[in-house]
Each structure stands twice: as C-alpha cells, then as structure tokens.
Design goal:
This protein is an alpha+beta fold. It has 2 domains: 334 residues, no CATH class; 115 residues, no CATH class. The protein contains 21 helices and 8 strands. The strands form 3 sheets. A 4-stranded antiparallel beta sheet has the order 6-5-7-8, with helices on one face. Strands 1-2 form a two-stranded antiparallel ribbon. A two-stranded antiparallel ribbon has the order 3-4. β5 and β6 form a beta hairpin. α2 packs across α7 and α2 packs antiparallel against α15.
C-alpha cells in the first residue's frame, strides 16, 4: 500500500531541482524588472510629497504598520536606500547567493513596498510575485544553477538526486492548481456564460494590447475564446494531478498555458503578469525534459558524456540520495499546503453555494503574509466601462496644458495608452482611482493629493508665467456596449479648480 501510494504521490507532487533553479532565475529577473518599473516614480508613489502621503494610507489599507517603507516615509533618502537593498537582494536571488536569505529579504521588501502604496499594486501580477517569492523561502530553489551550489560542489548536497518530493515541492503544484482553478471559479458573471466576456474585456482600451482592437471585430472567435478560457482555467489544473505518464501531461499543460499567456500578452496590456506566469511553470518542467536536453548535448559533442562534471558538481544519478532540506522549512511548507487545500475547498464551496466562504483568522494571517488566494481577474465580470483621465493644468499666463505629460490638452486617449505613462505603475494608479470613484459614484479622496503632486512636479520644472496655478481632472467614462460601433462617453469632473499649493 505504501509503495502504491508513493508511486502516485512522487511524480505528481515532486519537482526537479534543475527546474526549481531555472524558476529562481526567471523569478528574480521579473522581480528586478518590477523594481526598475517602480523606480521610475519613487517620489510620486512613495514620497511624502507624492500622490499618497503616509498619513492617508488608512484610507486604502490596514496593514501599513508592517511596512518599513511606511515607517521610514519622510526620512530623506530612505526610499532610495530601500530600493537599493531590494535590487541587491534581487541580484543575490538571481545568482543564487545565500538563496534563502535573499528570498526572505526580497519577499519582505516587496511586500512592504506594495503596502506603502496599494494603488500601484496590480491585483494579479503583484500578488503572484509576492507568493512566488514566499515559495522560494521554503523550497530548495538554490540547489542548482547557483553560487550556493557551486560553493557546495565538493559537499554531499551536490551529489544528491535531482528529483525531490517533499511538502515544499507539493506546495508548487498546489499553488499552480489554486491560481487557475480559483480564477476559473470566480468567473460567474452572465457574460462569461453567454460568451461575451472577452468582447467586453478587449474594449477596455486602458489595458489594451497590440492585437486587441483587431480581434474584437470577430464575434464568433471571441465567444469561442471566452468559453475556452473557462474550460482551461476550471478543468486544466486537474491534469496536474494525473499519476501516470505525468511528464507527458506536464509538458502538454505547459504548452497550453504558455499559449494562453502569450494570448493575454498580445491582447491586453497587463504588465508582467503573463511573463511571471510562464516563469511559474518552469518549476514544473519534468526530469524527462532535462534528460532529453542532456542527450542532445551529448550527441552534439560527438558522444561525449553529457552527465559529466558541471558547474553544480557531478550530475547525480537516479540512485543518488535525495537532497536533505531543513525540517523547519518542510513543516512550514506542510502548513502552507493545508492552507491551499482549505482555500481551494472554501472557494469551491462558495461557488456552489453562490456566496463567499471565509476562513476567518486564516484569511487574516494570509493577507498579512501576502499569500491570500483571491484572484479576481475579470471576475465575476469584465468591467462594463473604460475610462480616461484628462488632467488639465492652468498656467499663470492663462494657457491650458496637460498637467501630467505637458503639451496641449486632449480629451481623447492616445493611440498607445502604454506610451503615455512613464511606468506601468502610473497606469494602475489612475485606473484604481477612476474605477473606485465610479464604483462609489463619488470622487475618491486621493484625487486631491494627486492634483497637489501634479502641481509640485510641474512647478519644479517651470518658472514665472509657466507655473501651474490650478488643476482640473475630468474622467471620460465609456459605457462598453459591444453591439455598437462606438461606446457612449460620459464626462465626469472629479477635481474642479484645485488650487496649487
């Protein structure tokens, strides 16, 4: 019985250490990309004279007290020093130097940064990045392709088997399952069931991708892709649990979900969500793929042994002992596995009951750790509206300018929304304010500090008659109606004649 159970559990919940190493490199690369994007707007998004002073954080979060970025707000140079530390930890994770320590530092500083300004944290991508970094704390992602592995080349750790099945590797599988399954269950709106969801989603030009406008002219194809998305997200994850020919199903699933995320990448401008999701799948590359690659390398060398000495020491055979991992980490991974199972069960129960099922204090703890399993990506429906903020500044000479980018004021969205903003975080910030205001049917209180920041940033670069005296912000709200050639537009002033400090 034990042998039969092991034969099912080992291929389903195990992972190859080389795959974990490749995953670590990809994860660190995306983290550095995200930090670079955030660094373009440090003063605007994290400074006390920026768009959300620390005194106003209680308006949008309850967890700021755990953020070092919050506590050091207003200290000259502190934000840049913390960014420098984050970059250093990200590079250490990339090369696998003191990997577990680097993962802890990366996870905490990123969580702290996200809490300091929740308005620029994308619900899907930023949360997933935090969760994957948390994975990396408990899993042996530094056992291969790392400086740690090179340093241990003469130790027993370098001569262990590449395959490992522990609570930490099971955590990878369960997390991938949870992301897609919970996302699929959350899509309960009418437009997902009638095939209209993508027709709505692709008309949100604020997050439009290069091929979105082209595809939305094909109604039949959009309906097919809508239903296909539901099938992939709700039923595809179960193929992760197939206990026979598991490597074939893993490679098949990787192909399906890579295609899925490439589609999102070209149709929607959602930042690094798709690249990060594809990096996540690298952790589940089966050993058969590595063996095939080694065979190809051996053939390319004219029959030389591809399993010889390498950067990580001698290549271990199947009969080598498994890697020994810290008991504390495995215990933590086991508890996280139970949390994921409970989350999946609660979301499934909520789907059939038609209402949310809370895990109580467990949800609170998960929120503090930034690992809460809530994936509201275009759920229960895609937004039924698009928006565009027109930020108009009046200079001392009476002329009107675009207070955000300069130049003449225009009420129309630019052909490329992404090119208008200096960073993706700015786009998220303005979408959050606009979406929240429309949802609550009143201008959000955080429009005022945004207007103050626009004044401050402009007047730092201009003098005399070109200084801004006031700022107005008008939201252009487009009610999405796919059956019409153009969406009806409603102009809504959310900031009126805001006097510059």
């Amino acid at each position: 019985m034990k042998t039969r159970l092991h034969a099912w559990v080992d291929p389903v919940f195990g992972a190859d250490l080389r795959s974990l190493g490749l995953f670590r490199i990809g994860l660190a690369s995306v983290l550095l990309w995200d930090l670079f994007d955030r660094s373009k707007s440090v003063a605007a998004h994290y400074g006390e004279s920026g768009t959300i002073p620390s005194s106003l954080l209680p308006l949008v979060t309850n967890g700021a007290k755990f953020s070092i970025h919050y506590w050091l707000s207003g200290v000259p140079g502190a934000e840049w020093a913390l960014f420098g530390l984050s970059f250093a930890a990200g590079i250490a994770l990339l090369v696998g130097y003191r990997t577990r320590v680097a993962a802890v530092v990366c996870w905490y500083l990123l969580s702290s940064l996200q809490v300091r300004n929740p308005l620029v944290s994308w619900e899907g991508a930023d949360k997933l990045l935090c969760i994957l970094l948390f994975w990396s704390i408990v899993a042996p992602v530094g056992a291969r392709f790392s400086l740690d592995a090179r340093r241990a080349a003469g130790a027993a750790a370098a001569r262990t088997a590449n395959w490992l099945c522990t609570p930490a590797t099971a955590l990878f599988v369960l997390q991938v399952f949870a992301i897609y399954f919970i996302t699929g269950l959350a899509k309960t709106g009418v437009n997902w069931s009638n095939g209209m969801a993508l027709a709505y989603a692709l008309r949100v030009d604020f997050f439009g991708g290069p091929l979105g406008p082209w595809l939305r002219q094909y109604d039949g194809l959009l309906s097919l892709l809508t239903h296909t998305t539901l099938l992939i997200e709700r039923f595809g994850p179960f193929l992760l649990l197939v206990p026979f020919h598991t490597w074939i199903f893993r490679l098949l699933l990787m192909g399906v979900f890579y295609g899925f995320h490439v589609g999102i990448l070209v149709l929607m401008g959602v930042g690094f969500f798709s690249p990060l999701s594809m990096v996540m799948w690298l952790a589940l590359v089966p050993s058969k793929a590595w063996e095939g690659l080694a065979a190809l390398r051996g053939a390319a060398r004219g029959g030389a042994d591809a399993a010889g000495e390498g950067a990580d020491g001698p290549r271990a055979g199947a009969d080598a002992p498994p890697l020994r991992t810290p008991l504390a980490m495995e215990a933590a991974a086991g508890l996280l596995c139970l949390f994921l199972v409970a989350s999946i069960g609660a979301k499934t129960a909520g789907f059939f009951l038609g209402r949310g099922v809370s895990l109580g204090p467990v949800e609170t703890a998960a929120s503090l750790l930034r690992i809460r399993q809530h994936w509201p990506m275009f759920s229960p429906e895609p937004p039924p509206f698009d928006l565009w903020p027109v930020m108009r500044g009046r200079m001392a000479n009476g002329l009107l300018v675009d207070a955000f980018r300069g130049g003449p004021v225009t009420s129309q969205q630019p052909a490329s929304v992404a090119d208008y903003f200096p960073s993706f975080k700015w786009k998220i910030h303005l979408w959050w304010l606009g979406h929240k205001s429309w949802e609550e049917q009143q201008p959000h209180l955080l429009w005022a500090p945004l207007a103050d920041y626009l004044c401050h940033a402009w007047n730092e670069r201009h003098e005399g008659a070109e200084r801004l005296e006031s700022v107005d912000v008008v939201l252009r709200i487009e009610a999405i109606q796919p059956q019409l050639p153009e969406d009806p537009v409603h102009a809504w002033p959310v900031v009126r004649d805001h006097r510059c400090p």
